[in-house]
Amino acid sequence: MAAAAAVASNCIRELQTDFFETFHLRVEKVLSIGGSSEVVLASSIQDLSHNRAVKKISLKEEDLQDRKLSAKEAKALFHREIEILRTLDHPNIIGGVNGVICPDYMALSMDFCSNGTLVTHLKKMTNGLIDRYFDGLVSGVCYIHSRRIVHGNIKLQNIFVNAKNKSVLTDFGFSYKMPENVSYVKTAGATMAYLSPEVLMKRSKVDPFKCDSYAVGVVLRCLVLKRRPGYCPDYLQEVRESPHVCANFRYFLEALLHRKPSRRATMAQVQTTLDELVPEDYTEELSLNCRPEEESPSTASPPRKKIRSQECEEHSTMSLRGGNAYKLRSFLKKKKCYCTRC
């Protein structure tokens, strides 16, 4: 950790002048705005083909007061973001990161993703694009989780699309690394519409990795329904009431948007399922496993009870044949199942 911090410090320069003037950059347009920061497209005055995305984080007193931070605390968070990003190397995570601290703002320079954020693609979303962007997002989040890094602010505005039409996760301003021996934290998450139920209920301790999983589920919900989230007390119920959600997307929405963290899929489980199951498997599994939890008294299922792992696997895979049965088992932990009978 100390070595990583030293690397981050070496990549952050402090200037008494303006970042754009010092490096001969011209601001072309604003790419996104959020709180006391914005991301702009900057091009080199000497070489207009050289483009960079620059995140500007204000150090003005009024903006710091809005964030309830001192200048020292804001700079510490900036150093942490750079420190984390400089240790990551993944095609679905933003790269080319450098940091500069100016008198009135901090500038984080990074690779430019030429196709904007997922917000700009919502209305023209197709199943093929959803597959592509969702797969990339899962791959990126699974990668950072494997390194025990929590993103903490996954949302449409923080997922860009690069020149290769791949989704790229950005904005690690709320990210942090979880110690090896710690599983829960007091709070997690940043943007209201993407917060998990346990955070909204202000539970004393939450699993931040499961909070990231829920946010990924909200992003998938947005892509499938082609609209921004707003605030909804139960996204899963909203999805269940929509007749135009195909089986494979509904399958992952059921796994990611569950209100109970213990029954919510991890990103590693989702990644395994994406790698091993084929789309036609999802319809059969949904018909067996993904029924609404609250049913009328006349049709209600018997109370759930704990059963042995072997029994769980049997009734979860009884609709599958041949090689498909063993593939689903990799999605299930030894003593957990996402079907509604358990």
TrEMBL record:
Spans through the membrane: none
Q: Select a single GO molecular function from the record's annotations and give it.
A: tau-protein kinase activity
Sequence segments annotated as region (Disordered)? 289-315
Provide the Protein kinase domain boundaries: 25-278
Could you tell me which InterPro entries the record lists for this protein?
Kinase-like_dom_sf, Prot_kinase_dom
Q: Which UniProt keywords apply?
A: ATP-binding, Kinase, Nucleotide-binding, Transferase
A Gene Ontology term for the protein's cellular component:
cytoplasm
Q: Which SUPFAM superfamilies match?
A: Protein kinase-like (PK-like)
Protein's name in the database? CaMK family protein kinase
